[in-house]
User: Fold this.
Amino acid sequence: MDTCIFLLVLVLLPQLIMSNVPKVTSFRAVVELVSENSRIFSGEGLHLRCSIPDVHSNWSVEWFRGSERLPENGENFKLWNAHIKEGGKFSCQGARESVVGIIRTMQSLPVEIDVDGGWAILKAPSHQPLTGDTLKLSCRLRGTPPIHEAILYRDGIEVIRQTGQNLSFYLSNVTLEDAGMYSCRVSWDVRRRTYSVISVNTTVNILEVLTEPLMEIQADVKMFGKNRMKLICHVQYNARAPAPPGSRAVQLQGQGATVESGEVESTQQFLRNARITTMAQHPHPRHLLPPENPKLPPELLQSSS
Ligand SMILES: *[C@@H]1O[C@H](CO)[C@@H](O)[C@H](O)[C@H]1NC(C)=O
Ligand SMILES: *[C@@H]1O[C@H](CO)[C@@H](O)[C@H](O)[C@H]1NC(C)=O
Ligand SMILES: *[C@@H]1O[C@H](CO)[C@@H](O)[C@H](O)[C@H]1NC(C)=O
Ligand SMILES: *[C@@H]1O[C@H](CO)[C@@H](O)[C@H](O)[C@H]1NC(C)=O
Assistant:
């Protein structure tokens, strides 16, 4: 492995010296929402933070809304007294000086911020709920009117109606059918007049803990020979950390033969039998999969030109 990296450096070295800026590293910046809500009322504030997964260098941070470069430079980005038009998809990127010019990290995945000019916002959990979870949806109001009724809608149809001051709705043991576009309506009386406000729709997706296994069969004679084929079982396991330990990843059952593998989420096995069914048991948690970005030293750069 060391030899391999060493050779790669040798091969890349002339290119590194010759090529022009800009350069992009294999690091990706990560933008995180520090304040509680990604949908805020106009006039409220917001805090985002950018982190760069490389502690060895001193990176400065560049901020973007969509493709527009913002004037802010620090690790922290704050919006005060937000205006509706200040919403958008925020991302960040690290940049630093080096002997070969300015080096940049990959731009972070964006965080979407909505600035709402209305009176009610329906807040969904920041993590995607799993089937069987209790889903909490809260209606947030501008100000504190003396409310007497709150209604939750899914796809425009009433789901829960509560009287009193309670603005939190609980849906227990959710299934895939509970996914949809949710909104809330709140009413109150002031001087014998009834006021009613409704939020915009918030999309709620529900994840299955264990997706139905999908079998992929590769039977390329040139690659595997006449008597062999490759079976790949695709199954996704979505339990939140700490995930229960999985003893076996996937079991492939064939005619008379059962092959088990405890290695990876997509198990690959070679079998002779043609008729195979799959049965997922305890798949491995996601963190055991290989990392998305190979760990290359920062000096192994890809020229983006
Ligand atoms: C890191 O960079 C910032 C701005 O680019 C500079 O103000 C600061 O002194 C640097 N810190 C170190 C330890 O080099
Ligand atoms: C939310 O979406 C549903 C279905 O698309 C629609 O019927 C409903 O009117 C929408 N509600 C709001 C407040 O936009
Ligand atoms: C609001 O109502 C739900 C039931 O719909 C209940 O579980 C919850 O405790 C109530 N919250 C408050 C603050 O009363
Ligand atoms: C949750 O829903 C599933 C499927 O509808 C049902 O089998 C299960 O008994 C429910 N669990 C609870 C605690 O209600």
